[in-house]
Amino acid sequence: MSDYSRKVPIVALRGMAVLPGMQIHFDVNRQMSIEAIENAMENDQLVLLLTQRDPDTEEPGQEDLFSVGTIALVKQIIKLPGNVIRVLVTGTDRARLDSIVEEEPFLMGEVAMIEENKEELGESEKKAMLRGLKDILEVYFTENPKIGKEVIKTLGKLEEVGELIDQIAINLPISLEDKQTLLEAEDTYTRYEKIMVILTEEIDIIRIRKDLQLKVKEKVDKNQKEYILREQLKLIREELGEAGSGADADSYLTAAEELEASKEVKDKIIKEVERFKNVSGNSSEGAVIRGYIETLLALPWDKVSEDKKDIAQAENILEKEHYGLEKVKERILEFLAVRVLTKKGESPILCLVGPPGTGKTSIAHSVAKALNKEYVRISLGGVRDEAEIRGHRRTYVGAMPGRIITGLKNAGVKNPLMLLDEIDKVSSDYKGDTSAALLEVLDSEQNKKFVDHYVEIPVDLSEVLFIATANSLQGVPRPLLDRMEIIEVSSYTGNEKFHIAKKHLMPKQILRNGLTTKQLAVSDKALAKIIAGYTKEAGVRNLERKLGAICRKAAKEIVSSQAAKVRVNEKNLEKFLGKERYSFQPANEKDEVGIVRGLAWTSVGGDTLQIEVNVMPGKGKFELTGQLGDVMKESAKAGISYIRSVSRDYGIADDYFEKNDIHVHIPEGAVPKDGPSAGITMATAMLSAITKKAVRADTAMTGEITLRGRVLPIGGLKEKILAAKTAYMKQVLVPLQNKKDIEEIPAEILEGIELKYVDSMAEVLKYALA
Asked: Which segment of the chain is annotated as a signal peptide (predicted)?
């Protein structure tokens, strides 16, 4: 019943209700609510807490609030950032809002206090209500074991019906609507009825929820039962001979036990087999795991082949199958000698660099044969994807190991000879840098634990003998080059080509074309003519094609005309191969002014380069023709600058270069020419034309020039001297700094050639001018 009225500041609550006896923290950020609390603190610290009907209303009026709320004592205020205050209140009494008397700056209401009339109920009714509440609470606590023991103990001690009802509403998870209903009930009997209904409904809800959980559990148990039945069905199928993944799994486990591998590898395979057992044999995941297990079982983890220890036999095989290539043979025999002494020894990583057709790939096969190693060839030409080397991760569809692991699997042993062919042809794109992926493979310190993305287990590559091949080192990145031992395979001389053709290529082509040595004979002079007139290359690949063409025509002649034997000599060679295609320009018959023979290196060997210079009256024009590159143009400019600087030494007039035009030309204008080895040649030709002094026709030269007339070293010396010998040159001028390279050139090339080492243009002119 209403006892008395008073004015109290009002705080509107959103989504919560406060009951008498309840102590609670809440945050306030609306200005009107903050000012209402501050006003209460200045007076008697009392506020009326009313719940909003709609939590989203920002400025509630009387119609937006429930009429019954709780008078609360504000015990503490804490100011927080963002104009928010945290309030600690204790609910004291129920109260009804009669009217709002002030709306600005905060709500102030005329409030009627509601006091509970405890004298309306008799002692028996109170005891009955108390006992009924405690009985239903006991059932509730039994059904809902999540309620804390402290709450149960607190509620068990209360002996006042009204206080117990309020504490039940405060401590148990009851909805906001139910709390507001209890708040609005004015007498104890009504509140008792309402709390009993609420608790009974809560108990029913908990029981229904438990029933639903039980049904779900039964369904899960049913699935488990189905799984067991499937396993039994699998066993029945195996008994009937319809073996599925179970039989495969057992065979994998047996193979894993017999595998020559470390415990780590075996444990990984056994773990994957256990996974495979639990996957349906027809599923895509089962196929992926099957492929992975079979790859792991196929790898030669600790399986090795025994290398040959007979150095003499290995040397015989290399000599028999390859003519020349002394450096390569020597390095392989050194490796074998170290292996004999140390029993193991680290395998070197060799890189054979040279022009096409010089036998780089075939010598790797011979080395494998000489050492009794398994041979694996991996072609890297055009490989752009890093995954080709490192493999794909197993998460991708169609994943597979990289080429290195695939090669190891195909070899069947962990110490094969692995040929990385055309290592200078690998490239990079958005899928990764292939050459960077090769760094780990070709590093003797890192490849002991090479990790392929597909295999995932470290694989030991330290016992693999890697041999790489490249046509040029220009395309190989520096870090990759640093990990390999470079062995240059230079061009073959005419004599070497002759021996290779006679001992290796001709017998091979005769056999390949179904002939015998009794049916076809090629004279030595014919072979020499084929080498000189029909091929122009550093290697012997084109030479082999020409010999193949002779064998085919001979086979046709034997079959069609029933000839017993076909003889090929230098006289009838044209009948088999047609007209000669190439001819080296021999030395000029007489010494000439302004014409000098230079030497050049090309991808197919060495060549001679005739440089011509003409001087004519004009206005000091300097012209270069013959499709020259930037390097050669700069060499020519450096040469003319040197000549002008020493013009008085040669009796050249001071105004000579202003009154005369100089034209430098290199014949074969359609062929691009470039390189740092024609400097002294062009300077000599220009000085000869200017001074009208002839240059020796039997002299060739190579070297770069500086502005001060110094001669710089060059490369490709063997090929250049070979070209000079082919052109019948008697004297070759070579930079002094290249003297050390002469020791590596075979004596047969140097025979008949007089080498002159030059360090300055003065020395060049001393030897070159007639």
From this structure: none
Beta strand extents in 291-348 (DSSP E only): none
Percent of the chain with pLDDT over 90: 8
Active-site annotation holder among 179, 546, 720, 725? 720
pTM passes above 0.90: no
CATH code of the domain in which 537 resides: 1.10.8.60
Rounded CA gap, 273 and 270, in Å? 5
Per-residue tokens: 194:
């309402």
State which of 62, 86, 115 marks the end of a domain: 115
Instruction: State the DSSP H helix or E strand holding residue 665, giving kind and residue range, or none if neither.
Output: strand 660-665
Q: Please determine, for residue 718, whether its predicted confidence score (pLDDT) is greater than 60.
A: yes
Output the pLDDT for position 684. 92
Contact 608, 600 (CB under 8 A): yes
Nearest of 617, 619, 645 to residue 710 by alpha carbon:
645
- Phi and psi at 385, nearest 5°, equal -90, 125
Distance, in Å, from the CA atom of 408 to the CA atom of 4, rounded to the nearest integer, reads 98
Helix (H, G, I), strand (E, B) or coil at 102: strand
- Contact (CB, 8 A) for 288 and 298: no
Tell me if 275 is assigned to some domain.
yes
Could you tell me if residue 133 is inside a domain? Answer: yes
**Are 645 and 734 contained in the same domain?**
yes
- Please state, in angstroms and rounded to a whole number, the distance separating the CA atoms of residues 131 and 337: 102
Q: Rounded to whole angstroms, how far apart are CA atoms 693 and 211?
A: 118
3-state secondary structure 384-438: CCCHHHHCCCCCCCCCCCCHHHHHHHHHCCCCCEEEEECHHHCCEECCEEHHHHH
Judged on CB neighbours under 10 Å (0-12, 13-18, 19+), 372 is middle
Nearest to 668 by CA among 615, 628, 726, 622: 628
Is 219 inside a domain boundary? no
Same domain? For 46 and 187 the reply is no
720 counts as catalytic: yes
Which residues are known binding-site members for ATP?
A: 354-361
Q: How confident is the model at residue 702 (pLDDT cuts 50, 70, 90)?
A: very high
DSSP string of 206-234, one letter each residue: HHHHHHHHHHHHHHHHHHHHHHHHHHHHH
In whole numbers, what is the pLDDT of the chain averaged over residues?
Answer: 83
Catalytic residue among 373, 677, 718, 725: 677
Query: How many residues are present in the chain?
Result: 770
Residue 156 has pLDDT above 80, yes or no: no
Q: Which CATH number belongs to the domain containing residue 158 in this structure?
A: 1.20.58.1480
Domain end residue (candidates: 115, 142, 157): 115
**pLDDT, mean of residues 180-197:** 79
**What burial letters (b/e) apply to 314-343, b meaning 16+ CB within 10 Å?**
bbebbeebbbbbeebbebbbebbeebeeee
Predicted confidence band at 1 (pLDDT cuts at 50, 70, 90)?
Answer: very low
Locus of tokens 């007076």: 43
Would you list the DSSP string of 153-179? HHHHH---HHHHHHHHHHHS---HHHH
Q: Tell whether 638 and 744 lie within a shared domain.
A: yes
- Cα 626 vs. chain centroid, distance in angstroms? 45
Quote the CA–CA distance of 611 and 406 in Å, as a whole number.
Answer: 54
Report the SS3 class of residue 8: strand
